[in-house]
Design a protein that fits this description.
- It is a single chain.
- The chain has 535 residues and is an alpha+beta fold.
- A hairpin with a 7-residue loop joins β6 and β7.
- α2 runs antiparallel to α3 and α2 packs antiparallel against α6.
- The chain is flat, with a radius of gyration of 48 Å.
- The chain starts with a helix and ends with a helix.
């Protein structure tokens, strides 16, 4: 054969893919393994059948036959003792033996179902036992207690012969069952030996097959993949311009070409991603600046509204004092509306100022004893607590690095809400807990008040959101929103426990130390006169 004739065959083998090589090798291997496997499967099934027969039939049958004999012997001992002494105590083993005999008889009958010889032996045992019980056991057991039974003496010889027949039947039964058990055991051992030889042959074949497979995989797959992996690691190290050289079967060469194509695409995507990141950083900076300007605007707007609102409130209160009762009732009502509206607006603006100051004016992080802050807060709310008859308890509270003013505002809003939103016919009971969970501290404030419906669990933390009218419960709807801002400023989270039904339970977490992005902010300057800024 010339070189030109050999060249097409070489090209044909090089065009084989990994899948084709695996299919051919797998087909040959499976053909041999199928033959060996079928033989091994038959041997396993046969071994399992013999093992189950030995464990579940032969051995239990022999054991049950021995226990059946023991039950009959207990009957004979009891009847013989009762016949000689007339003591009722001897009837107990007799009666127990009768019960045990029936149970073992039924169990043995189920085990040897379908085996004629074993069933014939069991029938012989039943007849012998029935004869002995009818002629000897039951008549003697029916004799009155207190003295030896004359029947026992009269039928002593007959009783010995009938019970010898019982023993003979039991011994014959046990001998047959023992022989069958021994035969099954011998069959099992022989089959196990055959199984060992067959599986040893299968093992040798599998070892040879494994060696061939590993050698083929090493040459046809592992080495090309190792080269591909080495090129990929060079690229992963940062040399994205490093080319990938395909090798191995046809599909692995295609894989190498596709990976190299992906590398070239990644180079283009990385350039685009870097450009997008720069634009995103610029947008984030613009958004941060916009948020700062919005907070500045909220602070300035609320601060500058104080002076004109103070004038409106002062003059409406002056009208109320000076002309109250001099005009008609409708005019007095209008003045009351104006005074109330001005006062509520002033309260709302003050709350908004406090909300905007969180993280700005109050940002002095230091070691804070929450126990001490909690006690100061309860003392500050003592008038409302005493009027409501509230009972406030708490677990030991930790010390954290936080802003003390904000911690006081947090406790004041949570405890104040628990006292305010109480049930009209029940004194408030408030309990505060603190537990360490990993790197965070988890706090709960639990009360027995009117509670918060699960559908409002998120709404209550939105600024100016109220679940009740001002006529039912006073307030501006900013307290829990301020609590949320304080907690998040200190690296935690706050939520309503939706599973608590006996009131409300607010849970929140705090970090032992403030997060890195919690940096002091410069207090915004309000527009207006110098007197207004000092205010």
């Amino acid at each position: 054969m010339t070189g030109d004739e050999r060249q097409p065959r070489t090209r044909g083998l090089s065009a084989w893919t990994t899948r084709r090589w695996l299919r051919v090798g797998t087909a040959i291997s499976l053909a041999v393994l199928a033959l060996l496997g079928a033989t091994g499967a038959w041997i396993l099934v046969r071994t399992e059948t013999l093992s189950e027969e030995l464990v579940e039939v032969r051995s239990p049958a022999l054991t049950t036959a021995i226990r059946l004999e023991s039950a009959v012997l207990n009957q004979e001992t009891g009847i013989r003792g009762y016949g000689l002494t007339g003591s009722p105590d001897f009837l107990t083993p007799y009666r127990e033996g009768v019960v045990e005999q029936k149970a073992r008889d039924a169990q043995l009958s189920g085990l040897i179902r379908g085996e004629r010889s074993a069933l014939a032996d069991l029938t012989a045992v039943r007849k012998a036992v029935a004869t002995w019980q009818e002629r000897i056991a039951r008549p003697i057991a029916a004799a009155p207690p207190g003295a030896s039974s004359p029947l026992a003496v009269a039928r002593a010889e007959e009783g010995r012969k009938t019970f010898d027949a019982v023993r003979a039947a039991l011994n014959g039964q046990q001998e047959r069952l023992s022989a069958e058990r021994t035969g099954t055991k011998n069959d099992l051992m022989a089959m196990m030996e055959v199984r060992n030889w067959v599986f040893s042959a299968i093992g040798v074949f599998i070892v040879l097959l494994t060696v061939l497979i590993f050698e083929g995989l090493r040459r046809g797959i592992n080495e090309p993949l190792d080269r591909l992996g080495a090129d990929a690691r060079v690229i992963t190290g940062g040399d994205f311009e490093h080319p990938i050289t395909p090798s191995g079967p046809a599909d692995l060469r295609r894989l190498g070409e596709e990976v190299d194509s992906m590398r070239r695409r990644l180079v283009r995507e990385l350039a685009f991603t870097e450009d997008a990141r720069l634009r995103l950083d610029a947008q984030a900076a613009d958004l941060q600046r916009s948020n700062a300007e919005l907070e500045q605007f909220a602070y300035v707007a609320s601060h500058d509204l104080q002076e004109p609102l103070r004038k409106v409130s002062s003059f409406t209160q002056l009208l109320q004092r000076r002309y109250g009762g001099q005009l008609d009732s409708r005019a007095d009502q209008y003045i009351d509306f104006a005074v109330d509206g001005a006062n509520r607006m002033q309260t709302l603006i003050n709350d908004l100022l406090d909300f905007s100051r969180v993280g700005r004016l109050h940002n002095a992080h230091q070691e804070v004893d929450l126990e001490e802050v909690f006690e100061r807060t309860v003392s500050a709310l003592s008038v409302g607590i005493e009027e409501a008859g509230a009972t406030i308890t708490h677990d030991p509270l930790p010390s954290l690095v936080a802003d003390p003013t904000q911690m006081g505002m947090l406790w004041q809003n949570l405890i104040g809400n628990a006292v305010k939103f109480r049930r009209p016919d029940e004194a408030p009971r408030i309990h505060v807990t603190a537990d360490r969970e990993g790197e965070m501290w988890r706090f709960t404030v639990t009360d027995n008040g009117i509670g918060i419906a699960p559908e409002y669990a998120d709404k209550v933390f939105v600024i100016f959101q109220r679940l009740h009218t001002k006529d039912v419960y006073s307030g501006s709807g900013i307290g829990l929103a301020m609590c949320k801002k304080i907690v998040e400023f200190h690296g935690g989270a706050i939520a309503v426990d939706p599973d608590y039904r006996d009131g409300a339970r607010i849970t929140f977490t705090l970090a032992p130390e403030p997060p890195e992005n919690s940096v002091p902010a410069v207090a915004p300057q309000a527009a207006g006169s110098g007197a207004e800024r000092a205010e």
